[in-house]
Design goal:
16% strand, 8 helices, Rossmann fold, 7 strands, 252 residues, alpha/beta, 7-stranded parallel sheet, single chain
Amino acid sequence: MHYFIITGASKGLGEGLAIELLDEKHHLLCIARNESSTLKRMAAARNCPLDFFLFDLAVSHEIPALCRQVFDKVDTANAEGIYLVNNAGVIHPVGRVESCPATEVEHHMQVNLLAPMLLTAEFIRYTKKLSARKRVLNISSGAASFPYHGWSSYCTGKAGVDMFTRCVGTEQEDQDHPVECMGVAPGIIDTSMQETIRATTDEQFIHRKKFVDYKEKGELIPAAIAGKRLARLLLSDDEFRAGEIIDIRDTY
């Protein structure tokens, strides 16, 4: 059995990836604030084990307890592969840094940066002695390396995740049974986050018109296609490269 822990699996890219991974030899462990009835229905039809863990990743101090619940579902003795995909994320607050409420900045960093760090740490602890394939895939963004006016939180959080990914890659090099940790920028996906971006004002986000054009010109990537690309990378024997950050559009 292969086990897939996916955050933000109830919609968008996370749901697209989960749907692509549905298989009777896969057990999906989905962490989200809400369940996906579509995903549950499709999993049942394909005889794929699936569990939803309703959880707000901003509640950082409860992440270790969450991971105990998740790994209670994992038969580590017979697992062929265990995978963690840190996909969940938020875009708010948007605007000049001095206009962003402190509570929103804190919430953003808890979800986009701290949660992937803590989940990865727990994943390594629970799988440290296992010889099965172990992989962590962190969802990055072009915003990790390009400074967007109005996205100080989002750009900073994604840049932090990229550096964290590289650090874990370095730390795992001397382990007997290393966890492979990689980051991937999936492109501009047609998700609710894009709807949120288009709903901002030009004052909050001076690049808003460009993102409106992406939608109107049909240049957004459907979540199903992006999910297919991520699944292929996650399960690849030779394209998953520990400690690296890639733009999936350059590969597939």
